[in-house]
Amino acid sequence: MIGLVISGLVQGILTGLMLAFLTVGMTLIYRISRLTNFAHGSLFVVAMYLTFALSRSIDINPLLFALVITPLMACLGWALYWGLIHPIRTRHHLLAVQLLLGLSFVLDASILIGFGGDLQSVESPFNSRFVHILGTGFTMTTMIGASISLVGLGVLALAIQWSDFGRHLRAVANDNLAARLAGLSVERLEGLTWALGVGMLGIIAPPMSSIVTLTPDIGLQYTVLSLVILIVGGMGSLVGTIFAGLVVGIAQSLGLLFLPGSFGALLPYALLVGVLMLRPGGFAALLVRS
Amino acid sequence: MKAVSVQFGFNALVALAAFGAIEVMPHYWIGVIFLAVIYAGVASAWNLAGGIAGTFSFGHGLFFGAGAYTSVLLFTNYGLTPWIGMLAGALIAALTGMAIAWLAERCAIGDLAFAVMTLAIAEMAYICIDSFEPFGASRGISLPPASGVAAMQFSSDALYLWTAIAFLVICQIVVAAFAQSARGYRFRAVRENPLAAQAMGISPARERMIALAASGALTALGGSIYAQYLLFVDPLTFFGPSITIKVILFALVGGMGTVWGPVIGTMLLFPLGEWLRGLFGGNVPGFDSLLYGLLVIVCILLFPRGISGTVNYLFRGSWPLRSRRKK
Amino acid sequence: MLDIAQLSVSYGKIEVLHDVSMHIAHNECVALLGPNNAGKTTLLRAISGLVPAHSGSIRFADADIRNQRSDQIVAQGIIQIPEGRHIFAGLSVEENLLVGGARLKPRARRRQLDKLLDALPLLAELRARRAGTLSGGQQQLVVICRALMAEPRLLLIDEPTLGLSPVAIDDVFTTLRNVHGAGTTILLSEQNAELSLELCSRGYVMAGGRIVLEGDSAQLKAAALGEVYLT
Ligand SMILES: Nc1ncnc2c1ncn2[C@@H]1O[C@H](COP(=O)(O)OP(=O)(O)O)[C@@H](O)[C@H]1O
Ligand SMILES: [Mg+2]
After folding, report:
1. Per-residue buried b or exposed e for B242-265, using 16+ beta carbons within 10 Å of the residue's own CB
2. C1-68+185-231: CATH topology
3. Under an 8 A CB cutoff, do C102 and A182 touch?
4. Residue ranges covered by each domain of chain B
């Protein structure tokens, strides 16, 4: 029993790290432009299918594809901002939400057309190598995915705190008008943030695509999961997002172990509603208070 | 109330024209139009809360499903006629809506958090129903055949369509009445600036509760009628997120916050989607929804005010279906 | 240095500035006076490219800057201190200043920062504090220094003393006098005519979106005694 709980916890932490990394792109975009990227999950699925396509044609370790997919996704994010978001940025934010939902239809449909609706998975040599933590074996893919996420989140946190880009991003999030008057090009920064936020999906997609089963219609699920983490984390807080990712990951994995049937899937949602009821600011409010 | 009577007259006119058309229409298109009308009603109902009162719910599937399941369960278990059962469903949905709005207001959460919270509540309901055996879990419930008007099971699809049209008319009357009454102004005040509204003595909590309750009740009616048409309910169709997403899309493309926008949006987009599916769905799966998504993107980029809002903007009041009286 | 001719500006369909013309010479300090809603803020925003101007011209150092992007205008040395103390509340004082110097090369930025902090030991003490936790007067000082970080050629200042205590108002004006003394051209929008006319040599009076009076400080002070709109 105790062993089961511990292995569930470790699994939850590993998954949680990856979920946090998956969400943090959405967090950055929300933070700088107050926009929720409702195509986030679909873009992630696109990145996973890119991994799948590459892994079928080139026979190397799929984790290496991140080197190609990340810049591709970053360009896509940048183009998305200038093509779709920038023209309507002064309109109601729900308009952008619908636009991005429309985009997610397009992305999901393109995947369906390109790859068909069958279940797919990406073979990785790391899937059959195991690392033992506290008596439970985890695949090398999971370990690497979680490590990449941990390092990535750390680097990002440092960059936000210490680099010019990070400082400017925080300035725009703090006070848009003052940032403009300080000579920052807010549009350019928003475009870069979209490139960063979407590009990061290209880093996490290769490991994730060898962990989960791919179908073209899972985009919305990932969007919703990221939204839950974003809000539980306190909307825009980097540290909050990391905490929320871990909590959701742990809740999910313990729920799978101990709750009957599909009730485990309830947990992230219940967590969201619970946190909103108790502390509308999410974890970020908790952190600031203490 | 002049505008209401104009709208009523317009409804009657449309009904008259439709009467002739429906009698000669092929079976397939009656089905499509039935669905379009139901969606139009629900889009309009969503718009009452989301568009006019600024209470963006992403969980209208909850109300739709609650209406459908209530009337179906009352009928299969107690033999209660769906005509009354759907009112019970509407009542339950209204109370749920009120509770959600109250909770949200009590915790003072923002727009986005509210949207995602309603989404989460609807998803939880979906997951629960999906594994709740007494309600048939994911298999759903089939209605026992019992033809007759009392059981709301008609011999011809045209009669279902008429029921749906009646539902749409009710939705439009309710929404128009709300929009043009003092309450409608309070809704808009809350949408534009809750703090300022509060300073004027308006209670945002109360207005939002009323908006979401009315919106939920209307949505539930739509769910009941749709269930009677299908003779079947299942969690995915009724509680799933897709109905909410579609309905918000229709309202937005048509013109959010206007009385007729959602109906116009649905009447354009829904048949178009069906047509695309008929054209491409068979040979290239996914191609229709690709085109559909592109169309939505183009619509939003071209008419950021929505179709109805753009028309209002261009014609500045000379448009007979003006959705708001002059400010 | 700055030449504005027949400038008209609208918000949506409502025109709020009508045919405004104004001239500021190098090294001048010019006051912009007028009651609430006269259009002072709108004029400054139009100069900084935050609201589009639909007719007229704005020329700075003989180049047309009307309807350039705000970051291009900042790049030419027109720096605005906006109304209402827009401070980056979540950033530290030092970070606020660094953002102010965003257009400088990293080394030049550091040098400028050190120079300003040397000149204002008060700020040097506060450099690690979160700007949101400072008092109103301290915040205004940070905002002024943030603008100075960009090495302004023309400084536009919008009601810097709004809501400050008399002591803090004195501090602000002392700082502005030093800035002007160091050779920066200033356009100062203020409701407090007396103080600003002491600092500036010349001024314009706006009302209802137009310039209704202009002249040197002595003339305006004399007029102020008779006119209500200069209070
Ligand atoms: N964002 C805005 N939208 C519409 N009208 C505005 C806006 N800002 C200011 N105004 C109007 O423009 C006029 C001038 O305002 P403003 O420039 O702020 O004056 P001042 O700074 O002299 O007090 C006022 O009548 C005000 O109501
Ligand atoms: Mg002003």
Report:
1. ebbbbbbbbbbbbbbbbbbbbbbb
2. Rossmann fold (3.40.50)
3. yes
4. 2-240
